[in-house]
Amino acid sequence: MKPMNEEHLAVLRRHMVEMIAIHTDLASEELGKTTLDKRVMAAMSRIPRHLFVPASVAPYAYQDMPLPIGFDKTISQPFIVALMTDLLAPQPHEAVLEIGTGLGYQTAILAELAGQVWSVEIIEEFANHAEALLRGLGLSNVGIRVGDGSRGWSEHAPFDKILVTVAAERTPPALLKQLKPGGRLVLPLGSEQAQFLTVIGKDAAGQLETKQFIPVRFSRLETA
C-alpha cells in the first residue's frame, strides 16, 4: 500500500476536527458551551499532528485518542488539546507560558494563537525534538528550555496565560506568582485517582477564582 499524501492527511485532520466538535457537543452540559472557539478549531485543522508523534503511531495521529511518545508519556487526545486551548483563550497580543512541552503539538497550537509562547520541558530529548519540529513549521514565536516546570520561567514573567499539560495535586505557587493580574491558568488538578481540568483566574487585585470542568487523566508533574 502506498503512503498517505498531504491531501489524505488534510482529510483526516478535518475528520479529527469534526470529532472534536461532536465530543464538545456531547459534553456541553459539563462545559457550559456547545462549541469551541473558531480560532482554536482552525488551528487544530492546520497543525499536522502526525509530525508530533513517533512514526510507529503516526497512522493513528488523527484519531481522537492519546498516543505514546516515549518516556512513558503521551500526546493528549485532540479533544483535550482543543478544550484546554479554548479554556485558556490565548490572544494574538499575549505571552503564554506552557509547562510540559512534550514533542510540541500543544505548543504549536498555542503558537498559532498567541503572540509569544515560552515552554518548559523536563525531558531534554523532548525539548530538542520539539524545538526542531516547531522551527521546521516556521513557528518562530516559541522559546523552549529544559527545566523544572513547577518553577515556571521567571525571566519572562509575568504571563498573560499559563497552560500546564501535566497534573499537579496543587497549583505550583511559582506559576500563580508569575501569572499577571487579569490572567488565566489552565491545568489538570487533583490526585492520581481524581483529576479535573481546572481554570484559575486572577483578578486585578490578585485574588484567585477556581472553576472545575471535566474529569481527566494526565501524567504527573515532575520536579527536579
Task: Explain what the structure shows.
The protein contains seven helices and nine strands. The protein has 224 residues and is α/β, with parallel strands linked by helices. It has a seven-stranded mixed β-sheet with strand order 5-4-3-6-7-8-9. It has a two-stranded antiparallel ribbon with strand order 1-2. Helix 1 (6-26) packs antiparallel against helix 3 and helix 1 packs across helix 4. The protein is globular.
What overall geometry do the principal axes of the alpha carbons give?
globular
CATH superfamily: Vaccinia Virus protein VP39
CATH class: Alpha Beta
Q: In sequence order, what are the helices and strands, one letter per element?
A: HHHEEHEHEHEEHEEE
Count of helical stretches: 7
In round numbers, the mean pLDDT is 94
Q: Within the largest sheet, what's the order of strands?
A: 5-4-3-6-7-8-9
Care to count the β-strands? 9
Derived from helix and strand composition plus strand pairing, the structural class reads alpha/beta
What's the end-to-end separation, in Å?
46 Å
Question: How helix-rich are the residues, as a percent range?
Answer: 25-40%
Largest sheet: 7 strands, mixed
Radius of gyration: 17 Å
How many domains, as an integer? 1
CATH topology assignment:
Rossmann fold
Tell me the fraction of residues in β-strands, as a range: 25-35%
| Unreliable spans | none
Question: In the CATH hierarchy, what is the architecture at level 2?
Answer: 3-Layer(aba) Sandwich
Task: Briefly say what this structure is.
Helices cover 33% and strands 26% of the residues. It has helices at residues 6-26, 28-31, 38-46, 78-88, 105-113, 124-136, 173-178, and strands at residues 67-70, 73-75, 95-99, 116-121, 142-146, 159-164, 179-190, 195-202, 208-216.
